[in-house]
Design brief:
This protein has 265 residues and is α/β, with parallel strands linked by helices. It has one domain: Vaccinia Virus protein VP39 (Rossmann fold, 3-Layer(aba) Sandwich), CATH 3.40.50. It is 40% helix and 23% strand. It has eight helices and eight strands; from the N terminus they run H-E-H-E-H-E-E-H-E-E-H-H-E-H-H-E. Strands 1, 2, 3, 4, 5, 6, 7 and 8 form an eight-stranded mixed beta sheet that branches. Helix 2 links the parallel strand 1 and strand 2. The chain is globular. The two termini are 23 Å apart. The N terminus is likely disordered.
Length: 265
Protein backbone atom coordinates (compact mmCIF):
# COMPACT_ATOMS: atom_id res chain seq x y z
CA UNK A 1 0.00 0.00 0.00
CA UNK A 2 1.32 3.43 -0.92
CA UNK A 3 2.10 5.63 2.07
CA UNK A 4 -0.03 8.72 2.50
CA UNK A 5 2.05 11.89 2.32
CA UNK A 6 1.82 14.07 5.40
CA UNK A 7 1.12 17.79 5.15
CA UNK A 8 4.28 19.85 5.04
CA UNK A 9 4.54 23.51 5.96
CA UNK A 10 7.24 26.04 5.20
CA UNK A 11 7.28 29.38 6.95
CA UNK A 12 9.76 31.17 4.69
CA UNK A 13 8.46 30.88 1.14
CA UNK A 14 10.49 30.49 -2.06
CA UNK A 15 10.65 34.07 -3.37
CA UNK A 16 13.93 35.32 -4.91
CA UNK A 17 14.73 37.27 -1.72
CA UNK A 18 14.45 34.06 0.30
CA UNK A 19 16.57 32.13 -2.18
CA UNK A 20 19.22 34.86 -1.86
CA UNK A 21 19.12 34.55 1.95
CA UNK A 22 19.49 30.77 1.77
CA UNK A 23 22.45 31.08 -0.59
CA UNK A 24 24.17 33.41 1.88
CA UNK A 25 23.37 31.06 4.78
CA UNK A 26 24.96 28.20 2.84
CA UNK A 27 28.15 30.23 2.49
CA UNK A 28 28.21 30.71 6.27
CA UNK A 29 27.47 27.14 7.33
CA UNK A 30 28.32 24.57 4.66
CA UNK A 31 32.01 23.95 5.33
CA UNK A 32 31.49 22.88 8.95
CA UNK A 33 28.47 20.74 8.11
CA UNK A 34 30.25 18.87 5.31
CA UNK A 35 33.05 18.02 7.76
CA UNK A 36 30.41 16.72 10.17
CA UNK A 37 29.00 14.40 7.48
CA UNK A 38 32.31 12.56 7.05
CA UNK A 39 31.95 12.04 3.30
CA UNK A 40 34.27 9.41 1.77
CA UNK A 41 34.97 8.47 -1.87
CA UNK A 42 32.30 6.73 -3.95
CA UNK A 43 29.50 7.32 -1.45
CA UNK A 44 25.92 7.28 -2.66
CA UNK A 45 24.28 10.16 -0.77
CA UNK A 46 20.72 11.45 -0.36
CA UNK A 47 20.03 15.02 0.71
CA UNK A 48 16.47 15.42 2.00
CA UNK A 49 15.20 18.93 1.31
CA UNK A 50 17.90 19.98 -1.14
CA UNK A 51 16.59 23.51 -1.76
CA UNK A 52 18.93 25.34 -4.11
CA UNK A 53 21.41 22.45 -4.22
CA UNK A 54 24.36 24.47 -2.91
CA UNK A 55 25.06 22.06 -0.05
CA UNK A 56 24.55 19.03 -2.32
CA UNK A 57 27.19 20.44 -4.67
CA UNK A 58 29.62 20.88 -1.77
CA UNK A 59 28.99 17.31 -0.60
CA UNK A 60 29.55 15.92 -4.11
CA UNK A 61 32.87 17.78 -4.27
CA UNK A 62 34.01 16.61 -0.82
CA UNK A 63 35.48 13.30 -2.02
CA UNK A 64 36.15 11.38 -5.22
CA UNK A 65 33.21 9.93 -7.19
CA UNK A 66 30.53 10.88 -4.65
CA UNK A 67 27.01 10.77 -6.11
CA UNK A 68 24.31 12.95 -4.52
CA UNK A 69 20.57 12.86 -5.09
CA UNK A 70 18.71 15.92 -3.81
CA UNK A 71 15.10 15.29 -2.82
CA UNK A 72 13.07 18.50 -2.89
CA UNK A 73 9.32 19.11 -2.66
CA UNK A 74 9.33 22.56 -4.29
CA UNK A 75 9.55 22.72 -8.07
CA UNK A 76 10.54 26.38 -7.75
CA UNK A 77 13.59 25.45 -5.69
CA UNK A 78 14.61 22.70 -8.13
CA UNK A 79 14.25 25.12 -11.04
CA UNK A 80 16.63 27.56 -9.31
CA UNK A 81 19.07 24.88 -8.06
CA UNK A 82 22.71 24.78 -9.12
CA UNK A 83 23.65 22.29 -11.84
CA UNK A 84 26.91 20.44 -11.19
CA UNK A 85 28.30 17.00 -12.03
CA UNK A 86 27.25 14.07 -9.82
CA UNK A 87 24.23 15.91 -8.34
CA UNK A 88 20.71 14.94 -9.45
CA UNK A 89 17.44 16.42 -8.18
CA UNK A 90 14.20 14.53 -7.64
CA UNK A 91 10.90 16.15 -6.72
CA UNK A 92 9.12 14.31 -3.93
CA UNK A 93 7.81 14.21 -0.36
CA UNK A 94 10.19 13.39 2.50
CA UNK A 95 7.37 11.62 4.36
CA UNK A 96 7.06 8.98 1.60
CA UNK A 97 10.25 8.69 -0.43
CA UNK A 98 10.23 6.86 -3.74
CA UNK A 99 13.56 5.09 -3.17
CA UNK A 100 14.22 1.40 -2.42
CA UNK A 101 15.27 0.20 1.03
CA UNK A 102 18.98 0.47 1.81
CA UNK A 103 19.77 2.41 -1.35
CA UNK A 104 22.17 5.04 0.09
CA UNK A 105 25.39 5.05 2.12
CA UNK A 106 24.58 8.38 3.79
CA UNK A 107 21.31 10.28 4.17
CA UNK A 108 21.10 13.77 5.64
CA UNK A 109 18.72 16.69 6.11
CA UNK A 110 19.49 20.21 7.23
CA UNK A 111 16.96 22.84 8.36
CA UNK A 112 14.18 20.49 7.22
CA UNK A 113 12.61 18.69 10.19
CA UNK A 114 11.40 21.96 11.70
CA UNK A 115 9.17 22.46 8.64
CA UNK A 116 7.49 19.05 8.37
CA UNK A 117 4.32 17.94 10.11
CA UNK A 118 5.65 14.48 11.03
CA UNK A 119 9.42 14.64 11.68
CA UNK A 120 9.67 11.11 13.09
CA UNK A 121 8.02 9.78 9.93
CA UNK A 122 10.66 11.57 7.87
CA UNK A 123 13.43 10.13 10.04
CA UNK A 124 12.00 6.63 9.65
CA UNK A 125 11.99 7.10 5.89
CA UNK A 126 15.59 8.31 6.01
CA UNK A 127 16.49 5.22 8.04
CA UNK A 128 14.66 2.95 5.59
CA UNK A 129 16.55 4.17 2.52
CA UNK A 130 20.04 4.09 4.06
CA UNK A 131 21.99 0.82 4.00
CA UNK A 132 22.51 -1.21 7.16
CA UNK A 133 25.43 0.34 8.99
CA UNK A 134 24.93 3.59 7.10
CA UNK A 135 24.49 6.99 8.79
CA UNK A 136 21.61 9.43 8.90
CA UNK A 137 22.54 12.97 9.91
CA UNK A 138 20.52 16.12 10.58
CA UNK A 139 21.11 19.73 11.62
CA UNK A 140 18.22 21.73 13.09
CA UNK A 141 17.07 24.88 14.84
CA UNK A 142 16.22 25.75 18.38
CA UNK A 143 15.50 29.40 17.76
CA UNK A 144 15.48 30.24 21.48
CA UNK A 145 19.28 29.96 21.36
CA UNK A 146 19.71 33.23 19.46
CA UNK A 147 21.54 35.83 21.56
CA UNK A 148 22.61 39.39 20.75
CA UNK A 149 24.57 41.87 22.83
CA UNK A 150 23.74 44.66 23.41
CA UNK A 151 20.21 43.23 23.88
CA UNK A 152 17.58 43.77 21.20
CA UNK A 153 14.20 43.72 23.01
CA UNK A 154 12.17 44.68 19.94
CA UNK A 155 13.70 41.73 18.07
CA UNK A 156 13.11 39.40 21.03
CA UNK A 157 9.41 40.27 20.98
CA UNK A 158 9.04 39.57 17.27
CA UNK A 159 11.12 36.38 17.52
CA UNK A 160 8.66 34.98 20.07
CA UNK A 161 5.84 35.79 17.65
CA UNK A 162 7.81 34.03 14.89
CA UNK A 163 8.04 30.89 17.05
CA UNK A 164 4.30 30.90 17.77
CA UNK A 165 3.42 31.55 14.13
CA UNK A 166 5.57 28.66 12.93
CA UNK A 167 3.92 26.41 15.50
CA UNK A 168 0.48 27.47 14.24
CA UNK A 169 1.49 26.33 10.74
CA UNK A 170 2.47 22.91 12.04
CA UNK A 171 6.22 23.52 12.19
CA UNK A 172 8.57 23.49 15.18
CA UNK A 173 11.33 26.08 15.52
CA UNK A 174 12.47 24.38 18.73
CA UNK A 175 12.93 20.91 17.25
CA UNK A 176 16.70 20.96 17.68
CA UNK A 177 16.34 20.25 21.40
CA UNK A 178 14.37 17.06 20.62
CA UNK A 179 16.74 15.37 18.19
CA UNK A 180 17.94 12.63 20.52
CA UNK A 181 14.39 11.66 21.43
CA UNK A 182 13.31 11.69 17.79
CA UNK A 183 16.24 9.51 16.72
CA UNK A 184 15.48 7.07 19.52
CA UNK A 185 11.83 6.95 18.47
CA UNK A 186 12.82 6.27 14.87
CA UNK A 187 14.90 3.26 15.96
CA UNK A 188 18.47 4.41 15.31
CA UNK A 189 21.51 3.04 17.11
CA UNK A 190 24.82 4.73 18.03
CA UNK A 191 23.16 8.14 18.21
CA UNK A 192 25.44 11.11 18.82
CA UNK A 193 24.62 14.77 19.37
CA UNK A 194 26.77 17.82 18.63
CA UNK A 195 26.42 21.53 17.97
CA UNK A 196 27.64 23.82 15.21
CA UNK A 197 28.28 27.30 16.61
CA UNK A 198 27.60 30.68 15.06
CA UNK A 199 29.69 33.11 17.13
CA UNK A 200 30.20 36.51 15.54
CA UNK A 201 31.24 39.97 16.67
CA UNK A 202 31.76 43.40 15.13
CA UNK A 203 34.70 43.17 12.78
CA UNK A 204 34.56 39.37 12.43
CA UNK A 205 33.98 37.92 8.97
CA UNK A 206 30.44 36.62 9.45
CA UNK A 207 28.96 39.25 11.77
CA UNK A 208 26.95 41.34 9.29
CA UNK A 209 26.02 38.29 7.23
CA UNK A 210 24.63 36.50 10.28
CA UNK A 211 22.49 39.48 11.31
CA UNK A 212 21.25 39.86 7.73
CA UNK A 213 20.24 36.19 7.84
CA UNK A 214 18.14 36.81 10.96
CA UNK A 215 16.57 39.89 9.36
CA UNK A 216 15.82 37.76 6.28
CA UNK A 217 14.06 35.19 8.46
CA UNK A 218 11.73 37.89 9.75
CA UNK A 219 11.20 39.41 6.31
CA UNK A 220 10.34 36.05 4.78
CA UNK A 221 7.56 35.55 7.34
CA UNK A 222 6.44 39.20 7.55
CA UNK A 223 3.20 38.81 5.59
CA UNK A 224 2.15 35.71 7.49
CA UNK A 225 3.04 37.21 10.86
CA UNK A 226 0.91 40.27 10.17
CA UNK A 227 -2.00 38.57 8.39
CA UNK A 228 -2.27 35.94 11.10
CA UNK A 229 -2.40 38.59 13.82
CA UNK A 230 0.71 37.35 15.62
CA UNK A 231 2.60 40.58 14.99
CA UNK A 232 2.03 44.17 13.87
CA UNK A 233 3.93 45.88 11.06
CA UNK A 234 5.27 48.43 13.53
CA UNK A 235 6.74 45.67 15.72
CA UNK A 236 8.50 44.09 12.74
CA UNK A 237 9.87 47.43 11.56
CA UNK A 238 11.23 48.16 15.06
CA UNK A 239 12.90 44.73 15.26
CA UNK A 240 14.58 45.08 11.88
CA UNK A 241 15.75 48.61 12.66
CA UNK A 242 17.23 47.42 15.95
CA UNK A 243 19.13 44.59 14.25
CA UNK A 244 20.40 46.87 11.48
CA UNK A 245 21.68 49.33 14.08
CA UNK A 246 23.47 46.48 15.85
CA UNK A 247 25.70 45.93 12.81
CA UNK A 248 27.08 49.46 13.27
CA UNK A 249 27.99 49.05 16.94
CA UNK A 250 31.66 48.35 17.58
CA UNK A 251 30.78 46.58 20.86
CA UNK A 252 28.15 44.24 19.38
CA UNK A 253 28.22 40.44 19.20
CA UNK A 254 25.96 37.51 18.31
CA UNK A 255 25.79 33.88 19.38
CA UNK A 256 23.77 30.87 18.22
CA UNK A 257 24.24 27.10 17.92
CA UNK A 258 22.75 24.65 15.44
CA UNK A 259 21.74 21.30 16.92
CA UNK A 260 23.10 18.25 15.10
CA UNK A 261 22.58 14.51 15.42
CA UNK A 262 23.45 11.36 13.60
CA UNK A 263 22.39 7.77 14.03
CA UNK A 264 23.20 4.43 12.43
CA UNK A 265 20.73 2.03 10.88
Amino acid sequence: MKKKAARETYIHGTEPSEQKRLAALNRLTNEAFVRFLGVVPRMRVLEVGSGLGILAANVAAAAEAVEVIGLEKSGEQIAAAVTVPRVTYVQGDAHAMNFPDGHFDLVYARYVLEHVSAPETVLREMKRVVRRGGRVAVCENDITLVRFDPPCPAFDEVWKCFERYQESLGGDGLIGRRLYRLFRGAGFSKIELSVQPEVHWHGSEGFSAWIQNIIGNIESARRGLVNSGFCAEAQIAAAITQLAELTKRVDASACFVWNRAFGVR
